[in-house]
């Protein structure tokens, strides 16, 4: 009988180890699991909605020693980056709604910053495993931790915390109402519309040495963006920076230092209330393909098409996605996960620019992308981070066969358009954005714009292209401003980003989703068929609100040849008269572009100011169409629909907000066809454009 009791005791003890529901008896014993709250401030009382929660987990010494064995030799032991070896999971459940969030843990190394010597110093920690989360509901939460070794559950533990409220507006969401509301994103908590204002600040490293100095420079740009009223940027997850699997597809330890710096960037972005697109650059399968760890590990040969089709490769790609989302997707600032310029990935695989073969490669890439989306949403159970794909040059296949294209699988539509030609920068972009909205009916953003790379000296001379692009793209129906490239090649160096504040202030209090805005454009040409005045506007569905931008078209960088000595020197000598240096010490002062190309200028290459010394009532009018009209207003005593037009400076601020130019306000009625024709204020080189808002005043016989 005594022997039976001993055997039963042993069986029960073995069974209980696999079903543990609380920490091991002696929490300080080296053979125990220990889970503590590291952030915020090691106190559950400080947890706030949408703010980072970070748990540190210490594994039993028998498992840690096997992890260390793998890290020392890159074989044997337990691979901390292989979930089949070690899997740490946590399920967060809100008692308020019973909503669950499944979060994976990740292996982590800690560092301290030595700013004086521009380096990171490795610091030992017993908590080499982390779980990060941001609660999106106020109230009590339960957390169930689970540790698996080789697929077997060896430990579980329950913890609880209370989440307090915060002023954070939430993460970004899209809608599917099949109306113009869907043009704009909105905050998950406040449900206010989100209008993206910002540009590209993608990385701080070009030399595969992502240094502390470069990281601090990146944060400097983000701080300037925030100070200027910006709220949105793109951040690159590239081979030259922090892509976890770039050095070794099975072992990410060589990237721990860089990923620690990336942690810092993402925390800083959330601190500054900046949202971002995290994108994988085409350089993985294009410029740096010969150095790809997948090429070396799996003998894929010279054609990256196997990168998209090989099932063993896919397993390690999914491990990388698991790690990326475990480490950074806690942050509500991490809004989109994107594959950048898919056509360049495909061309490296042998895809031609067009034709049947191009479509076949498009399908291969789309299937690969869809598998990634499915893995993120189903296996990682993350449906908060939105998915997108970008093209360097939008293929006709995406437009003509949009229901079969990659954009149809994305949460947003993205466009890239570079150039310094008037037609390309404005009218063509407007046409393309409207076509894509009609085809896809999803939020759209022009996420890369700017002068071409060999036109960088222009940024050292003038902000006119940056300025005009910023305002024009804001009025094209996208969910924000166009996002300029070359942030590190002149924009922030010359403080052009300060203009974000005018745009942010202009759109700040507008109910963009409720208005259900539709874009329109208008232009007028002189006798020489040269465009001299153009207008871009957003019209509300009820025709009672208009947001717009009108400009003198001749105030273009190439037309400044006579009035701007810097532009004149660049055109004549293909470089600036002075050394045009950038923040990282590099320069670009020997472009190959032909700045005297007639395509860059308007017909006569001159600025034609629109000025009347007798008052703006003598200036030309511009048109806003499709507003309210009364078919009987031609009769003498008929009532008319009246509107107030208010103009704002695109360059001046007053008390920190965009400046209302009250002296230009006009009260007008529409024509019989519903057109409103305000007189444009003076348009000179110094003030070449105006933003404006139109408000409906009602139907009256006389001016109200």
Would you summarize the structure shown here?
The protein has 704 residues and is of the alpha+beta class.
Structure description:
The protein has 704 residues and is α+β, with helices and mostly antiparallel strands. 27% of the residues lie in helices and 25% in strands. The chain has 17 helices and 26 strands. Strands 21-22-23-26-24-25 form a six-stranded antiparallel β-sheet. Strands 14-15-16-17-18 form a five-stranded parallel β-sheet, with helices on one face. A four-stranded antiparallel β-sheet has the order 1-2-8-5, covered by helices on one side. A hairpin with a 5-residue loop joins strand 3 and strand 4. It is globular, with a radius of gyration of 29 Å. The N and C termini lie far apart (103 Å).
**Cα-atom Rg, whole angstroms?**
29 Å
Report strand order across the widest sheet.
21-22-23-26-24-25
* Estimated helix fraction: 25-40%
Distance between the termini: 103 Å
Global outline: globular
Low-confidence stretches: 1-29
How large is the share of residues in beta strands?
15-25%
């Amino acid at each position: 009988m005594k022997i039976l009791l001993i055997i039963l005791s042993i069986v029960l003890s073995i069974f209980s180890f696999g079903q543990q529901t609380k920490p091991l008896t002696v929490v300080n014993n080296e053979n125990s699991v220990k889970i503590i709250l590291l952030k915020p401030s090691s106190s559950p009382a400080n947890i706030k909605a949408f703010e980072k929660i970070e748990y540190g987990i210490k594994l039993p010494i028998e498992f840690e020693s096997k992890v260390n064995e793998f890290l020392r030799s890159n074989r044997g032991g337990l691979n901390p980056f292989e979930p089949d070896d070690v899997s740490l999971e946590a399920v967060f459940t809100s008692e308020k709604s019973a909503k669950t969030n499944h979060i994976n843990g990740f292996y982590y190394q800690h560092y301290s910053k030595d700013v004086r010597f521009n380096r990171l110093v490795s610091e030992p920690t017993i908590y080499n495993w982390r779980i990060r989360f941001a609660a999106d509901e106020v109230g009590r939460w339960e957390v169930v931790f689970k540790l698996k070794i080789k697929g077997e559950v060896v430990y579980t533990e329950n913890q609880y915390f209370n989440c307090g409220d915060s002023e954070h507006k939430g993460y970004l969401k899209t809608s599917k109402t099949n109306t113009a509301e869907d043009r704009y994103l909105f905050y998950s908590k406040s449900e206010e519309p989100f209008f993206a204002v910002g540009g590209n600040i993608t990385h701080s490293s070009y030399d595969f040495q992502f240094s502390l100095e470069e990281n601090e420079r990146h944060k400097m740009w983000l701080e300037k963006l925030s100070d200027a009223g910006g709220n949105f940027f793109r951040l690159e997850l590239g081979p030259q920076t922090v892509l976890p699997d770039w050095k070794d597809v099975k072992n990410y330890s060589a990237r721990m230092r860089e990923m620690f710096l990336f942690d810092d960037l993402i925390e800083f972005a959330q601190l500054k209330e900046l949202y971002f697109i995290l994108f994988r650059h085409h350089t993985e399968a294009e410029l740096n393909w010969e150095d790809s760890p997948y090429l070396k590990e799996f003998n894929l040969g010279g054609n990256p098409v196997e990168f998209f089709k090989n099932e063993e490769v896919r397993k390690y790609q999914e491990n990388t996605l698991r790690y990326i989302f475990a480490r950074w997707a806690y942050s509500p600032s991490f809004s989109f996960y994107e594959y950048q310029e898919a056509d360049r990935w495909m061309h490296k695989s042998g895809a031609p620019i067009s034709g049947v073969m191009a479509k076949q490669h498009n399908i291969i890439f789309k299937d690969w992308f869809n598998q990634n989306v499915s893995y993120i949403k189903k296996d990682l159970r993350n449906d908060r981070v939105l998915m997108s794909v970008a093209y360097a040059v939008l293929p006709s296949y995406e437009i003509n066969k949009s229901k079969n294209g990659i954009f149809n699988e994305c949460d947003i539509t993205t466009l890239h358009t570079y150039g310094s030609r008037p037609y390309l920068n404005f009218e063509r972009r407007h046409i393309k954005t409207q076509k894509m909205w009609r085809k896809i009916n999803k939020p759209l953003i022009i996420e890369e714009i700017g002068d071409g790379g060999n036109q960088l000296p222009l940024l050292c001379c003038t902000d006119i292209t940056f300025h005009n692009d910023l305002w024009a793209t804001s009025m094209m129906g996208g969910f924000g401003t166009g996002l300029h490239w070359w942030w590190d090649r002149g924009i922030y160096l010359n403080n052009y980003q300060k203009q974000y504040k005018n745009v942010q202030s202009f759109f700040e209090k507008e109910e963009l989703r409720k208005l259900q805005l539709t874009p329109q454009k208008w232009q007028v040409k002189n006798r020489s068929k040269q465009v001299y005045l153009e207008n871009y506007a957003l019209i509300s569905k009820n025709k009672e609100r208009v947001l717009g931008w009108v400009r003198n078209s001749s105030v273009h960088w190439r037309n400044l040849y006579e009035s701007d000595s810097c532009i004149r020197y660049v055109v004549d000598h293909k470089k600036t008269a002075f050394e045009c240096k950038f923040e990282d010490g590099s320069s670009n002062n020997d472009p190959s572009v032909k700045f005297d190309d007639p395509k860059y200028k308007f017909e006569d290459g001159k600025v034609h100011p629109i000025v009347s010394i007798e008052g703006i009532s003598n200036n030309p009018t511009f048109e806003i169409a499709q507003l309210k009209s009364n078919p009987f207003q031609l009769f003498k005593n008929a009532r008319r629909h009246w509107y107030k037009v208010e103009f704002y400076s695109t360059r001046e601020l007053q008390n920190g907000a965009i400046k209302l130019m009250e002296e230009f306000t006009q009260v007008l009625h529409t024509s019989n066809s519903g057109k409103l024709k305000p007189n444009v204020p003076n348009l000179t080189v110094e003030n070449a454009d105006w933003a404006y808002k139109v408000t409906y005043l009602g139907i009256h016989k006389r001016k109200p």
